[in-house]
Write a structure and sequence with these properties.
Blueprint lengths: L1 E3 L2 H13 L4 E6 L5 H13 L2 E6 L9 H5 L5 H10 L4 E3 L3 H4 L21 H4 L3 H16 L3 E5 L3 H14 L4 E5 L19 H6 L1 H12 L6 H14 L3 E9 L14 E9 L2 E8 L2
Helix pairs in contact: 7-8, 10-11
The structure holds pantoate (PAF).
């Protein structure tokens, strides 16, 4: 696996692949890699000629500075994992390489519209602008044919789809289903920070989504979401939301619709905020 730390070096390497029209698959990450990330690499490996991954803990997308400071960093293990999944290139830039203008410099504001005002957008102000900024920079650099992202970050995937629309970039977004632990807990880099007790309790998010799915035809949305929210609170979670959205528009629903719907949960146990989602029909 080639490892590049500067945009110039990565650019020089990618030039011939781009000129020859090779299919480049790109997997952007913030490191602390788990099997969910490797599933993205594996899909890219199957579908593309060249697989590029990046590891960059992006400071501009953390609305909570403590979350940024404590974000797990496991570079040595990450490199071994990427190599074992046959990644061709790892881009590992510094903050000054990605933000030579400084992280607080004025930047382009993306009009993500309604998407940025609800759920994660409402609970993490500025988060999606930071995600947009870094993914835009990375896409400009790598110019991938396909971009691979995990369904666990459902709203982020919709934001990136919108970013591609806004910027007119020809990259195709590929959303890969969430990888789960054997007990159902969605894999996440933040799981590393859960105590064994918190980890055991955290399957409640998956169980809650399953409960909504199983009772979806029998009960109204408000009852289902309230029930799951109360269950989570009763075992010690601080619940940000339990919501159901239209999977195409991301409109938060009070009433069921004919189209596809997704249940989403965000809740905090101790210091760790977890998210999960599931298609309901
Ligand atoms: O999902 C993530 O890990 C990050 O938000 C991303 C897409 C790598 C941007 O920093």
């Amino acid at each position: 696996m080639y490892l590049f730390k500067t945009k110039n070096d990565l650019n020089a390497f990618l030039e011939t692949y781009k000129k020859e029209g090779k299919k480049i698959g790109f997997v952007p990450t913030m490191g602390a890699l788990h099997d969910g990330h490797l599933a993205l690499v594996t899909k890219a490996r199957i579908e593309c000629d060249l697989v590029v991954a990046s590891i960059f803990v992006n400071p501009t997308q953390f609305n909570d500075p403590k979350d940024f400071e404590k974000y797990p960093v496991t570079i040595d293990q990450d490199i071994l994992k990427l190599e074992s999944a046959w990644t061709d290139v790892l881009f590992l830039p510094s903050v000054s390489e990605m933000y030579p203008e400084g992280i607080n410099a004025p930047h382009q504001v993306y009009d993500f519209g309604y998407l940025e005002t609800v759920l994660e957008g409402a609970y993490r102000p500025g988060h999606f602008q930071g995600v947009g900024m870094i993914v835009h920079k990375l896409l400009d650099l790598v110019q991938p044919t396909r971009l691979y992202m995990g369904q666990k970050d459902f709203q982020q995937c919709m934001i990136i789809r919108k970013l591609l629309e806004i910027t007119g970039m020809p990259t195709e977004l590929v959303v890969v289903p969430t990888k789960r632990e054997p007990n159902g807990l969605a894999m996440s880099s933040r799981n590393m920070r859960l105590s064994p007790e918190e980890k055991a309790l955290s399957i409640a998010l998956y169980n809650g989504l399953n409960e909504i799915k199983q009772n979806f035809n029998q009960q109204p949305i408000s009852e289902l979401t309230m029930l799951v929210s109360n269950n989570l609170q009763s075992i010690g979670f601080q619940v940000d939301y339990v919501s159901i959205v239209n999977s195409e528009t991301f409109e938060v629903l009070d009433e069921k619709i004919d189209g596809k719907m997704v249940g989403l949960i965000a809740a905090k146990i101790g210091e760790i905020r977890l998210i999960d989602n599931m298609y309901l029909n």
